Amino acid sequence: MDIRFLVIEGNIGSGKTTLATKLSQEFNAKLVLEQFADNPFLPKFYENQEKYSFPLELSFLADRYNQIKKEVFNLDLFHSLLVADYYFSKSAIFARNTLQKDEYNLFRRIFSIIFETMPKPDLYVYLHLDIEHLLENIEKRGRDYEQHITPEYLEKIRQGYIDYLRQITQFPVLILDTNNIDFVNSESHYTLVKQAIFQSDYKLGLNRVIL
User: Fold this and answer.
1) Which of 20, 81, 96, 192 is deepest in the core (most CB within 10 A)?
2) Number of separate domains in the chain
3) What's the CA angle centered on 84, arms 162 and 199, to 5 degrees?
4) Starting at the edge strand that comes first in sequence, how are the strands of the sheet with 205-210 ordered?
5) Interstrand relation of 123-128 and 5-10 (parallel, antiparallel or unpaired)
6) Domain of 9: which CATH number?
7) Quick one: pLDDT at residue 148?
8) Cα–Cα distance between 93 and 155 in angstroms, integer?
9) Strand 172-177 to 205-210 pairing
10) For residues 163 and 142, what is the distance between their CA atoms, to the nearest angstrom?
């Protein structure tokens, strides 16, 4: 499989940024990380979701659009691969679970118009991790604003991803179950992940691998 644009996604605490970073370093790839830390609405959202969900999702929509467009269409001669730890569609997945119905309908109209112009990944990898493991990882990394995240919220996000990924037909999607491995601390487990990503040809739409 010839991959030039690789997306590594997953729920909060799944290890997507760590994996994207490791792959980019090994393959001298251009790395695109989501710039969520500077979003002024994110800490406020975790304290009061109802009040701040709409401005948060709109700001993420704009930021993701600008970054993906800029980076994917500006691959240079020194990088034949781009690895991102998110995709533009993440905006719709999270908005579905955070916005009120009328807000989501408006958001979705804006999203659909923009999505048609976005570059599509050669492979989209979703890291599946059970809720209990996600919570453990969230606690370990110790971001104050994430400590309010509940199992119920993570489950909503998980279901949102699955519902969305089932609809994908334009590019291959690989759901990678990583519950039984630790690719962060084990080099052999990391190798298994690499092999699953780069050494198989996946059909358009949904593919599943358990490691």
Assistant:
1) 20
2) 1
3) 75
4) 30-32, 82-84, 5-10, 123-128, 172-177, 205-210
5) parallel
6) 3.40.50.300
7) 82
8) 12
9) parallel
10) 29
Are 35 and 63 within 8 A, CB to CB?
A: yes
**Positions marked catalytic:** 85
209 located within any domain: no
| Residue 173 located in a structural domain | no
pLDDT tens sequence across 18-54: 999 999 999 999 999 987 667 788 888 878 888 889 9
- The C-alpha atoms of residue 105 and residue 100 are separated, in whole angstroms, by 9
pTM of the full predicted structure? 0.87
Distance (Å, whole) CA 128 – CA 16: 10
Q: What is the mean pLDDT of the segment spanning 56-83?
A: 83
Q: Quick one: pLDDT at residue 104?
A: 94
